[in-house]
Design brief:
The complex is a heterodimer of chains A (108) and B (275). Chain A is an alpha+beta fold. Helix content of chain A is 17%, strand content 47%. Chain A has one domain: Immunoglobulin-like. Chain A has one helix and nine strands, in the order αβββββββββ. In chain A, strands 3-9-8-5-6 form a five-stranded mixed sheet, with no helix packed on it. The termini of chain A are far apart. The chains are: A alpha+beta (108), B mainly alpha (275). The interface between A and B is medium-sized, with 30 and 34 residues. Bound molecules: copper (II) ion. Copper (II) ion is lined by residues 11, 14, 127, 130 of chain B. Chain A: Residues 7-107 form the EfeO-type cupredoxin-like domain. Chain A: Residues 1-20 form the signal peptide.
């Protein structure tokens, strides 16, 4: 296989993987708050939720409605797969800073 | 201080309930206090190690290290609880056939202690590493002074331990002939509950399909947030909105353990031979 063919093949492979991968949604933790605090996602589809903790302290992403729980170390990112969700509101919070760290996933 | 107390209480409660059930299941077995204490201490030591390695663990397996690590810890606990129940079923049958065996059987019960040591150490490890991280994060946060954190954590720990102790003392009041049924029943539920958590962790990291998610939603009736919900969650794995895969894991684990116990009971160990 020539270098050209190989790179075309590789590009096709990468793009097909990219198509197959669930959509990404980003949330940032800063000063023990989620931004955005309301995250819109498509209903009926699996989502890659990427939580970027920019605080120096660890946080635990938790949601009873989404049935998810994950510790995120300070200054690091975590990936959490959620859904496919029925249309509706799914609150989440930071267990280590529940007073301020509140958010909601809205599936529509 | 209140948030420290609540979080430490919740984590302690989970570990304390498991410890309470196991302590009740091993009443009268020589050397159990030593093994159970060692399990708690090993779990606390392990918690500090795991908490300090959180970032490294999380980065393993393309960011899914935490899920896989927890799934592995819980998976090992499920296997050991299953093994313990099946082993006790066999042991119990022998015991029923010849009451004079009692002395020897209590001694044989001591052989299950290393397994239970591991169960307790891992249960404490799982809850403890979260607690250690939380307290560490709080102390870094700066808005709380160290004394308030220590105070809150101490209150939470005491309350959680008291709940575990209350459960244990409650068990001791169960009439002898029901005792084995109740303790092995609780261990069965505990194992099934943990298997469903394993499924949830694998779904969260996209290694298993969720099937129906959620299969049902009873959070309006009894939420996992409420005190009763939390208690039932720890004891029997109550989940207000479980995925279909979780239910499959739960039912399959419970069925396999029951089957194992039944088979073990039908084929009791030969009298007089050590297990
Ligand atoms: Cu926990």
């Amino acid at each position: 296989m020539s270098v050209f063919k190989a790179s075309v093949f590789f590009a096709a492979l990468v793009s097909s993987v990219a198509v197959a991968a669930p959509p990404e949604v980003h949330v940032v933790i800063k000063d023990h708050r989620f931004t955005p605090s309301e995250v819109k996602v498509p209903a009926g589809q699996k989502i890659r939720l990427i939580v970027d903790n920019q605080d120096a302290t660890p946080e635990e992403f938790e949601s009873h409605e989404l049935n998810r729980e994950k510790v995120i170390a300070g200054k690091s990112k975590a990936t959490i797969y959620i859904g496919p969700l029925e249309p509706g509101r799914y609150p989440f919070f930071g267990e280590f800073n529940e007073a301020t760290a509140q958010g909601v996933v809205v599936a529509e | 201080m209140i948030s420290a107390a609540i979080i430490v209480f919740r984590e302690t409660l989970e570990a304390a309930l498991i410890l309470g059930i196991i302590a009740a299941a091993t009443v009268g077995v020589t050397g159990r206090a030593r093994w159970l204490t060692a399990g708690v201490l090993a779990g606390i030591a392990g918690s500090l190690v795991v908490a300090s390695l959180t970032e490294q663990i999380a980065n393993l397996a393309e960011g899914m290290g935490q899920e896989l690590f927890n799934a592995l810890v819980l998976g090992v606990v499920v296997l050991m609880l299953a093994w313990h129940n099946i082993w006790m079923a066999r042991h119990g049958a022998t015991l029923a056939r010849d009451a004079r065996q009692l002395g020897r059987d209590v001694q044989a019960g001591a052989k299950a202690l290393p397994i239970l040591f591991v169960v307790i150490a891992l249960a404490v490890l799982r809850e403890g590493s979260e607690t250690a991280l939380f307290l560490y994060g709080m102390s870094l946060g700066g808005q709380h002074d160290a004394w308030a954190i220590v105070n809150g954590a101490g209150m939470g720990l005491a309350a959680g331990a008291a709940a575990g102790l209350a459960l244990y003392l409650g068990f001791l009041r169960i009439p002898t002939r029901w005792f084995f049924v109740v303790t092995s029943g609780l261990i069965l539920f505990l194992a099934a509950a943990m298997a469903s958590q394993v499924a949830n962790l694998l779904i969260q990291s996209d290694l298993l399909p969720s099937l129906a998610a959620p299969l049902w939603d009873t959070s309006g009736l009894l939420s996992n947030d409420s005190a009763v919900g939390l208690l039932l969650q720890t004891l029997v794995g109550y989940d207000a909105n479980p995925a279909g895969m979780q239910v499959i894991f739960y039912v399959a684990t419970a069925a396999l353990i029951l089957l194992g116990m039944r088979l073990a009971r039908q084929k009791p160990a030969p009298v007089g031979s050590p297990h």
